[in-house]
Amino acid sequence: PPSAAANLRPGAEQKVVFITARVHPGETPSSFVCQGIIDFLVSQHPIAKVLRDHLVFKIAPMLNPDGVYLGNYRCSLMGFDLNRHWANPSPWAHPTLHGVKQLIIEMYNNPKINLEFYIDIHAHSTMMNGFMYGNIFEDEERFQRQAVFPKLLCQNAEDFSYSSTSFNRDAVKAGTGRRFLGGLLNDTSYCYTLEVSFYSYILGGPNSAVPYTEEAYMKLGRNVARTFLDYYRLNSSVERPLAPTPKTR
C-alpha cells in the first residue's frame, strides 16, 4: 500500500479545512455543492492528490439529518434553527452542532493542528450566483487576507460572484457557525458561509441567467476544492498534464 501522506504521519503538523453543509434542511443545493467537493477530493485527479498530500479535509455533509428526513425547511426535529445555536449548543437538543463544535475546539487546542478554514454551505432563495459571507475585523490586514480565498474562487468558478460577497457582523447572524467560530478561532483561521442560489447564475450581461442544475452545483463544489491549490500556491506540485481549467469570468 502507498505510504501515508506526509501530513498524516504521526507528529506531523496538519493544516485542516473544515466544511459543513445542510444545517438548513430545505437548502438542498448545499448538499450538491458538498457532494462536488467530496467527489473531487477522493478522486484520482492530480489536483486532488496534491490537496490530500498537503491538507486534511474534515467534512460534515449534513448537520440537520432529522430536519431533512422530516422535510422541514429550516428547523430540526425539535423546532430549532440550528444555525443560531453555535454559541452554546446542547448535547441533547442540538447534538450535531455540539459534536462538531467539540471537535473544532479539540483541534483548536491541539498545537499540531492549524484549523485554517471553516466553510458552511447554504443555499439562498433570493440572490443569484454563488457568493460568500465573511466576518468584519478591526485588524485591516486580517480583513484583507480574508478576501483572498473568495477572490481566487471568483477566478476559478464562472458562477461565483465576488461582487455579491460581503463581510458583516449583523446581530441577527451572531449564532451562526461563521460568526461564532470567527470570534473563537485565532487570526490565521478564516470562516465563511458559502451561499449558492436556488435557481440561477448570471453569465455575461444582466439578462443572461443560467438555471442551476445538480451538475452545476457539484461543479461549484469542485471549483471550491481546486481553489485551495491556488490559495496555498501548490500548482507546481501537480503532475502534468493537467485537466483544462474552467474559463475565468
Any chance you could write out the topology, listing elements then pairs?
Layout: E1 14-21, H1 29-41, H2 46-54, E2 56-60, H3 65-70, H4 95-108, E3 113-124, E4 130-135, H5 140-146, H6 148-156, E5 166-168, H7 177-184, E6 190-197, E7 200-202, E8 209-211, H8 214-231
Parallel strand pairs: 1-2, 1-3, 3-6, 4-5
Antiparallel strand pairs: 4-6, 7-8
Helix pairs in contact: 1-8, 2-8, 6-8
Report what the structure shows:
The protein is an alpha/beta fold. The protein has a single domain, classed as 3-Layer(aba) Sandwich (Aminopeptidase). Helix content is 34%, strand content 19%. The chain is built from 8 helices and 8 strands. The strands form 2 sheets. It has a 6-stranded mixed β-sheet with strand order 2-1-3-6-4-5, sandwiched between helices. A two-stranded antiparallel ribbon has the order 7-8. The longest helix has 18 residues, at 214-231. The relative contact order is 0.19. The model has no long low-confidence stretch (mean pLDDT 91).
* Number of strand segments: 8
What Rg do the Cα atoms give? 18 Å
Number of domains: 1
Just give the CATH class: Alpha Beta
Percent strand:
15-25%
GO molecular function: metallocarboxypeptidase activity; zinc ion binding
Cofactor: Zn(2+)
Keywords: Carboxypeptidase, Hydrolase, Protease
Organism: Haliaeetus albicilla (White-tailed sea-eagle)
